[in-house]
Amino acid sequence: MKALNLTTLILVIVGGLNWGLIGLFGFDLVAALFGDGSLVSRVVYILVGLSALWQLIPLASAFGTGEVTAERGHRA
User: Is 73 part of any domain?
Assistant: First the structure.
C-alpha cells in the first residue's frame, strides 16, 4: 500500500507541474514527450487523474485523525 501511495503521489506531482507549465508558458510537457492526443499521453492523463482520486483517501484519513495542520513542516 505504501508503494501505491508513493507512486500516486509522484503522479499527482507530475500532473501539477505539467499544469503549472501549461498555465505559465502554454507548454504541455506530457504532450511534448508522448505526442499531442496520443494513446500514451491519454494514459498518462488518466493515471494522473486516478492518482488524484486515490490521494483523497490518505487526505481524508489525515483530516479524520487531526494530522493536517496549517503550518508547513509541523509535526503532530
Answer: no
The pLDDT tens digits along the chain (76 residues) read 789 999 999 999 999 999 999 999 999 999 999 999 999 999 999 999 999 999 998 888 888 887 766 555 555 5
Note whether residue 36 is domain-resident. Answer: yes
Q: Where do runs of H (alpha helix) occur along the chain?
A: 2-25, 29-34, 39-65
Give the structural domain span for 23. Answer: 2-65
User: Does 71 reside within a domain?
Assistant: no
For residue 12, CA distances in Å to 34, 63, 73 come to: 18, 19, 20
Does any domain span residue 40?
Answer: yes
Predicted TM-score (pTM) of this structure: 0.77
